[in-house]
Amino acid sequence: MTDLAVIFDELPTRDGGRIGVATLNSPKSLNALTLDMARQLDAKLEAWAVDRSIVAVWLEGAGEKAFCAGGDVVALYRSMTEEGDNRGAGRDSLYAETYFTTEYRLDYRIHTYPKPVLVWGDGIVMGGGLGLMAGASRRLVTQTTLIAMPEITIGLYPDIGASWFLSRMPPGVGAYLGITGAQLNARDALDLGLADHFIPRERRDSLLEALGEADYGSRTPRELQAGVQRVLDELEDRSQAPAAQVWPLLDHIQALSGQVDAPAAVRRILQDDRDHAWLATNRKRLEAGSPLSAHLVWRMLERHRHTSLADAFRDELNLSVQCCRQGDIAEGVRALLIDKDKSPKWLHESVASVPEADLQALLAPLWSEEEHPLRDLGSGKRIH
Length: 384
Prior knowledge:
The protein is α/β, with parallel strands linked by helices. The protein has 16 helices and 9 strands.
């Protein structure tokens, strides 16, 4: 296996076209998205978008365990705490701004891409991995897919556009998933609109071969999408999907999270005594998570219930950088991934004790509209 951060290839199609293949190549880190990966992938997608011979893009992760287990928060932590080349000016380092700007621009490109993008969401898909998958035109899940946004465990919040797409789930569901960091299987992803097709993992090679044999017509955007869709319809088999976890509990989840504010929702979730393993695991994760993060999840979903995706990404960039400067993320990453003592010392003891002033400080704008690093994001041609 090569040491390249992302492996790029182009598979020939029967009609003389090519399928662009990008493989995140860091299986030891579960393909955590590094700044270098994001830059390479964004540049290649930009080139493939205008290359008429490219009929579709396939994105996957190396190894058997994960598509992408999240962003490279270890590098982010080091930029805030360590001496050396990765350090800027402590928590005012420009690294966070650079990393999140690059990541969100890449995610937005996928949401608005003019050609079919197929993401092979096999194995773990968390945080930054979901950012890559969420905007794809064809999001493929398998028997081993495990999706989560567990940012509350490290003192962040579901970013990568989640402020936008979680707020468009059935009422209360997005807030519950974000506050608890709940883990979803393939069936849940299909039910909640985070996936489009269930393809048994043993059919991956057959799927790529069929895409190579497909008819893409005169390669208009409509014909490219239709060619991909015909192949997926042939190979999809939802009979092998695992049993749903969320949908059978929909009414209960909505009752838990359908509260007036974050403290009320958290209190209701933690007081829930229903004897159910999935719910119990979610309660434990919330109880151990950052109180500040619970508030940020709630606020961001409220703020972006009716905004554009571009506006959500701009707001998330502001908040993510602020979280690095004055939030819980450095302590959360330290406890979970660096020292691994699993005992973070959060800035606040409980959700109820978080002052409004602290939230307003995190939400305060860092840039004017004219200076914002993502000011050029527009409506795009396609939003999934």
